Amino acid sequence: MVTPLFKEIRHNPLLWLLALVPVVFAAQTISPAAHTLLFLLSIAAIVPLAALLSRATEAVAAKTGDMIGGLLNATLGNLTELLIALAALQAGQYVLVKASIAGAIVTNALFMLGASFLLGGLRHHIQEYNRNSARLQAGLLFLATIAMLIPSVLNQDGASSTAAKLTQDLSAGLSVVLIVIYGLGLAFSLRTHREFFSGAEHAEPDEGQWPLGLALTTLALVTVLVAFVSEIFVESLQQAATTLGLSPAFVGFIIVALVGGAAEMVSAFSAARKDRLDLSVGIALGSAVQIALFVAPVLVLVSYLIGPAPMNLQFWPGAVAMMLIATMTASLVTNTGRSAWFIGALVTTVYVILAMTLYLLPPRVQ
Amino acid sequence: MVTPLFKEIRHNPLLWLLALVPVVFAAQTISPAAHTLLFLLSIAAIVPLAALLSRATEAVAAKTGDMIGGLLNATLGNLTELLIALAALQAGQYVLVKASIAGAIVTNALFMLGASFLLGGLRHHIQEYNRNSARLQAGLLFLATIAMLIPSVLNQDGASSTAAKLTQDLSAGLSVVLIVIYGLGLAFSLRTHREFFSGAEHAEPDEGQWPLGLALTTLALVTVLVAFVSEIFVESLQQAATTLGLSPAFVGFIIVALVGGAAEMVSAFSAARKDRLDLSVGIALGSAVQIALFVAPVLVLVSYLIGPAPMNLQFWPGAVAMMLIATMTASLVTNTGRSAWFIGALVTTVYVILAMTLYLLPPRVQ
Amino acid sequence: MVTPLFKEIRHNPLLWLLALVPVVFAAQTISPAAHTLLFLLSIAAIVPLAALLSRATEAVAAKTGDMIGGLLNATLGNLTELLIALAALQAGQYVLVKASIAGAIVTNALFMLGASFLLGGLRHHIQEYNRNSARLQAGLLFLATIAMLIPSVLNQDGASSTAAKLTQDLSAGLSVVLIVIYGLGLAFSLRTHREFFSGAEHAEPDEGQWPLGLALTTLALVTVLVAFVSEIFVESLQQAATTLGLSPAFVGFIIVALVGGAAEMVSAFSAARKDRLDLSVGIALGSAVQIALFVAPVLVLVSYLIGPAPMNLQFWPGAVAMMLIATMTASLVTNTGRSAWFIGALVTTVYVILAMTLYLLPPRVQ
Predict the structure, then answer these.
(1) In this complex, is the C-beta atom of C297 within 8 Å of any C-beta atom belonging to chain A?
(2) pLDDT, tens digit, 9 for 90 and up, residues A121-140
(3) CB contact under 8 A, B185 and C349
(4) How far apart are CA C35 and CA C237, in angstroms?
(5) Full-prediction pTM beyond 0.95?
(6) Is C156 on the interface with A (CB under 8 A)?
(7) Measured distance CA(A74)–CA(A278) in Å, rounded
(8) What is the ipTM of this complex?
(9) What sign results for the dihedral spanned by CA atoms C109, C112, C116, C118?
């Protein structure tokens, strides 16, 4: 039964990194204080696990029909990001959770989108894609950015307990609203008006079907592995960042987002090269939307259960500004449904500017 | 001669609430301190008066030809809002005046537009409307938002008398500019380029013509009644809000705007159900534009004559942010000239988010 | 050989003002303290010199083929602005340099564009232009605005030396990024995808060819003259502004930008009247882009060599807000590729609002 899995591993060099998973656990047991080593090892181990996770999700989705498959992809598509954030949440590292949420939105909407346009555009003169789909995603991102902007702007000086309570109530309310609108958006694009979004939602053609049993087992097993490695990653991160001279803002925003999204990036970029830009745009903006309207609100609501204290949606103003810039850029750029290499260069440059700023930022400003 | 008026009242259940108008005056005479009762009664009385007022305006407009009719609709269309604001202005309640201006813009551009899309979309799969018209209105709203943003942003710390004078001069200048550009916009859409805006400007088909005499008499009489009831409304509002546990920001932004716009909402929603989205979008955005570029500047200029002190265009930053969000949302959403239920849900949700924030806001932040 | 030059001067009344150039130098020698006189004279002398400069640039470009010609226009097109800014840079007047950069972007993207639409629209009912080109320019402007926004927003309170160093490093990095993307944009519009931008890039039809020798000599000579007059202009400006009761912000933003761009405005407006709106939009947005992505970053990098201290990209927040407003307005308005007089009135009004604000602004707020 596991033949397809081994076949997959043999054909996908990225998955060879799976060999590092036991190495991480061994290193953690032997020298738990070697933070920088653990940090680098856990990054290198999460990337192939994330690739396997999204492959297993797709395999389950392929077996369960369009509607349930779409829902599965829409809820489990960013399972890696969710698991990393949950590990940080349990450790009470709310600043890291928020940085990784904002960073994932910005990285998906700017870097994944921009690099897809750029890589696709270097091979194809002009590429077209379904702009209805891109517009819907940009609209959802816009809504989520507004929802995250409000608690962040309202209570800058909010040290008082009234202000903290307002922010918490508001965050819980906004989270419910975001999840509801995310669900309605799925109903709209997968059910009532699916004919407008054709092309964008469908995943890769089956490269060798997985049996459902294998897919489900892989999904469960890899989820557990990612959860454990994420814990090591989160624990080692702060010390390692200091050693490597990276600001926490840069690590949370850029490194975590790139690690968590590595698997999806591989898919998006390869689709762009094959002139299947619908898929690339769907993955990039879809991921950003999912994190903004599903992962982030779920984390807020879950924090009431598992966190040391409830988490709110109040972000560092710079993070909100970056989400706003990412949303506006994605919205402006996908307006026409056409792309060429320079559009990709432009969007990627916006990301480079933000990353450069975060890299130069002194630690205290975060 | 008054037969059409009675016929109208018989057919429109909303107008049966007119019976409450004498009740308000009686209650005010008998127990002027029953603020909450007066507040609720005056709300219930303004709604049918507003409906009658807009019906009379339309009837006069229908009798006077397209050009003058268009002008009448464009200047008297938000007479209720103007009368409420004038009552608040004379009472020196500038915070309330400003909250009701900003609230009316936000409510019209988000709730009236969004709910029209939603209600229309629940009955019709896809609806189309004239996007030239929507774009013009969105452009005018954008201009007005900039004009209101500037004095609000410039002088946050402006306690000094120089700063106050600058803000006042700037507000007077901006008001003149806004009225001029509003007039030019009317000339553009009603005269020089009217062929691009066909469909959006025309009002309902005549449901029984009113004689001009009746229409003018109704207009004059109801205006006086609205003015009186508005005075009672404004007087009772602050006390009633405290009793009901509502923040003044919520009352000014949401309650006053919903009360003032109730009649237009009924028209806009019913047009959307009949797949006449041109009319709905025209009413929703047209009202927002009229308040931003005509009512608000007129209030600033009139305040030199009737207010205890001149009023300026300096808004609470949160109000400016909400106007900006409303303008951007309306602009993004009307870009294509097509709508479906989810677009309506999205726009309405933006409104719900803002309303929820205002509801939770502690009184002092306003 | 110089016949074409004299012919040009005879036919272009603007060039008769060249007679004022020696007058400026004479006045400067005779009464170097007559600041207001020198200020007015130098303005009147720069305008015809700028006209001659852009004529000579075009003449050289016409002789050197499309590719090199495009590059020449793209780098020397705003030579006047560059020379004025260099004079201010050497004098250590960084506030003036920055005000003139921001002012030139705002003036080109709002006033030059808006007045072109207005003047063209008063003669032609509807005008069309290449919206691909306008979109590219708007996208580049958007990127530049983000790049200028970041250092300005990050370090408001940055009096510390760490903050100053961060701002300086960031500004240098951003300048390099902007110049690179400007170069890529040229490669995109002049080389790889030039078929999408046809119409917008080509300059006026040759109104009497200039020999290359004459063109180059004129270019060199007039550059030197503009450099000298700019120095007198910058020296006299501050005193003259005080005497005339103008705030420095108004002078830097409005006067310098109008003086520096006078020659281009004449071309843009005359093209609009002739229904060649592609050319007008190209000049207006192209100039704004060139100043934002080429002149400004070059000034930052050059400041390491010639300024008393390196210059950064940290702007007064009001200037950033105005650049943002200008970019958004230009982006919204050029979205359709169609124009009518009211669009022009709208864009011009945004400029009038900003200019009015700057005029009323007290000196200290700058």
Answers:
(1) no
(2) 999 999 999 888 899 999 99
(3) no
(4) 7
(5) no
(6) no
(7) 16
(8) 0.88
(9) positive
